[in-house]
Amino acid sequence: MSLEFEICPGRKIGGNNPCFIIAEIGQNHQGDIEIAKKMIKMVKDCGADCAKFQKSELEYKFNKRALERPYSSKNSWGKTYGEHKRHLEFSHEQYRELQKYAKEVGIFFTASGMDEMAVEFLHELDVPFFKVGSGDTNNFPYLEKTAQKKRPMVVSSGMQSMETMRRVYQTVKKHNQNFCILQCTSAYPLEPEDVNLRVIAEYQKEFPDIPIGYSGHESGICITVGAVALGAKVVERHVTLDKSWKGSDHEASLLPEELAELVKSIRIVERALGTGVKQMLPCEKACHDKLGKSVVAKTAIPKGTALTADMLGVKVAEPKGVAPEDIYLLLGKTVKANVGEDESITEDLVESYAKEVKS
Fold it and tell me: Mutual orientation of helices 116-125 and 140-147 as an angle, nearest 10°?
């Protein structure tokens, strides 16, 4: 297992690699392939890494009664749920057309396989990785068959318990080393108090050998940026061209300007994370030169005097003297020359000081 793996050709996730940003178009295309293409171009222009859809083979995802039930919601595209879903479902040929367009635009393309037959089609389509939606995360026969195909996997965890996620980890791990788990809460839109970003840290402890990420359904971008600051290596957000369009996902989706701002903010936060090594940086030199303090003489100190604490103070001084953190190293040492009141105590004024510090 590795904290780093190639999720798409030439693009790794985990480790020190940039966060992989998935723009979930899903079915926000209104069943219109031209809108779908426009959205692919939009997410590329906004700086996302991947445009993702949702692929279902409806007779394998739903039973007959589910497809035949009346569907009179304001979001409905048909009299029955089956008619509604068929309106939103692209054909295999249309998926090939979208994949070709994404390649022309220059963005990775994949989809969530919403049932086993959809996964078979996506495998045939040669998508770079499989996305497992939260609705299939506890579908262990599906997980096993998907993992056995050996493509990288991104697994959401909405509606699941930690016990279930441990089983998911073990199930996928048996067949596939290259996968990551995303913290997710399945509510649209998601309220901040239900996000539970602390689960990211819990996943990092439970599954220390895989990348951990975040799939968000909240309004705005700040929570997703916070997830990256907490170590999310993959983030996924729904996107739309118009939040007033028909469909339950639009309200929890990002507009183009929000997606662009999210990408920009994530990249800024990544730069800000740094190395974790605490030291004075070159950029701090000017401030240190101007405001950094030094040890000074509180009173005149004759040559040959052994230094005591009551003789020494700390001030912004010119020239720079011994650093304040080293003041106690001066005690008991003698000065090699007269030191005037309020003058800097420099290393060369103190017997044996420079030699001892260097050693």
Answer: 20
For β-strands 312-316 and 108-113, DSSP reports them as unpaired
Q: What is the pLDDT of residues 270-304, one digit of tens each?
A: 999 999 999 999 999 999 999 999 999 999 999 99
Does the bond joining 319 to the residue before it have cis omega, within 30 degrees of 0?
yes
Q: Which tokens sit at 165?
A: 């996620």
What is the Cα–Cα distance from 117 to 59, expressed in whole angstroms? 10
Separation CA 137–CA 156 (nearest Å): 7
Other CB atoms within 10 A of residue 30 CB: 19
How far apart are the C-alpha atoms of 46 and 258, rounded to whole Å? 9
Residues with Cβ within 8 Å of 350's Cβ and at least 6 positions away in sequence, in order, are 307, 322, 330, 333, 334, 335, 336
- Which of 305, 296, 306 is closest to 341 using CA atoms? 296
Tokens of 326: 């080293």
Alpha-carbon Rg for the chain, nearest whole angstrom, is: 30
pLDDT at 248: 83
Count of beta carbons in the 10 Å neighbourhood of residue 358 = 7
